[in-house]
Amino acid sequence: MSTVKSCIARKAGQILFLPSSASVLDALTMMREYRIRAVLIIDNDHLTGIVSQGDCAIRVLLPGKDAGATRVSEIMTRDPLTVTPEHTIDHCMKIMMTRSIRHLPVTDEGRIAGMVSIGDAVKDIMQQQGELIKYLETYIKGHSVEY
């Protein structure tokens, strides 16, 4: 069973974040530039929230607010649910499915270690299934008897 630690190790090492004083426009620009769908909000080395594209669209753009004037602190999900590197990807998937969320910040002894997305979890599960299929194919081919 794969862990969060192995999942974030396969990703680029950079942890992307903004301070709560940043504008929603800053968050959207970062999301576009790095092709991500959520940004961690960190103040004084402490995770204070998370902002997703959906938050920006529903809480700012649809009501017609100015994305440049609106601070992420106004729309972020405060004190988001987190996981640790020791959690399994299956555990993360269950959390994301039951809570209808797509991103989980990863904390290690109170410090941000990365983020796991639903896409990361799906990729990990697909990789595990591919490895299982290869193992089973090898087992079947290696143990078949020809007459």
How would a crystallographer describe the biggest sheet?
Answer: 4 strands, mixed
The value of Rg in angstroms is 19 Å
Strand content bin = 15-25%
The computed structural class is: alpha+beta
CATH architecture descriptor text: Roll
Task: Specify the CATH class.
Answer: Alpha Beta
- The coarse overall form would be elongated
Strand order of the largest sheet: 1-2-3-4
* Count of individual domains: 1
Alpha carbon gap, first and last residue:
38 Å
**What fraction, in percent, of the residue positions are helical?**
40-55%
Which runs of at least 5 residues are low in confidence (pLDDT < 50)? none
In the CATH hierarchy, what is the superfamily? CBS-domain
Average pLDDT number: 92
Number of strands: 6
CATH topological fold name? CBS-domain
**What is the element string, with H for helices and E for strands?**
HEHEEHEHEEH
Describe this structure in words.
The chain is an alpha+beta fold. It has a single domain (4-142), classed as CBS-domain. It contains five helices and six strands; from the N terminus they run αβαββαβαββα. It has helices spanning 4-10, 24-34, 53-61, 89-99, 118-142, and strands at 17-18, 38-43, 46-52, 77-78, 103-108, 111-117. The strands form two sheets. The chain has a four-stranded mixed β-sheet. It has a two-stranded antiparallel ribbon with strand order 5-6. The model has no long low-confidence stretch (mean pLDDT 92).
